[in-house]
Description:
Number of domains: 2
Distance between the termini: 14 Å
Number of strands: 13
CATH architecture of the largest domain: 3-Layer(aba) Sandwich
Amino acid sequence: MTATAVYAAGAVCWRMIDGKLHVLVIHRTVYGDVTIPKGKVDPGESLPQTAVREIAEETGLGVALGVPLGISRYPMPSGREKIVHYWAAEVSERAVQRSTFKPNAEVAALEWVTPKRARGYLSYQPDVEILDNFMQLVDQGVTATFSLTVLRHAKAVGRSGFEGPDASRPLSARGVEQAARLVDTLTAWRPKRIVSSPAVRCVTTVTPLAAATGIEIKRDAGISEDAWHAGDSEVRRVIGKRVRAGRSAVICSHGPVLPEIMRELALATGTPLGSYATDAAELEPGAFSVVHLSATNQGSGIISIETHAPRA
């Protein structure tokens, strides 16, 4: 992020109504316009965290982020550039029923409309372009998705300064802070499972996430660094199980193991291998790549990958 730009985030929220796809538009009170739910980043927030929070504040809906839809850039009246990141976000019937939305000083009304009608409603061309990006997913039949987040453990104490088995090395003070700051971002994709190498530095990295979500950490030596060095890792088994399950999950492992994890994700989904897999595996400690897969079209391969740097 640059100091001069204003950053914001939002999502194209969608659901099926009577068998037809509908998207959510908001009618804003002050501006008298129609737009996609979005809002400015608060200090200390990540963009995915902002998107989920702003949707909840503007619409009362709790959502999980799906595929990234692109970025809008446009000048503000102040002369500063506004940069808005968007995702798709499926809205469940339960979320609709639990919405606490009431017309207020910011949002006058919510309206679920067909994409065709939304194109005519939206007040701003950048919003239309983001909607068109979403419709490309619809045309490809990959609207409903789940995510597998490949996470490199947070910063650990160095090998030279630690006595004992490598798997027992703890996180450094910086790593502990990174692990805590991961929680609000990783929960934007609503993971249902947490799988970790049994190494202390991996388990400790996902412990704050487990505590916040109530999800039990599944320790699996098949993605440990020790097994990788010994030549008896079981990355294919671990990744295959997660792909078949079709539920969003966080997978925490080690730098040397990540390229094999990405390779097996490509193979398990029938996706041609390419530089994208190498790039997504080149993670700093505490960084992660979110791999988006179709929940309904098993043959569609990897739909999108987004990589996020550590925040501490």
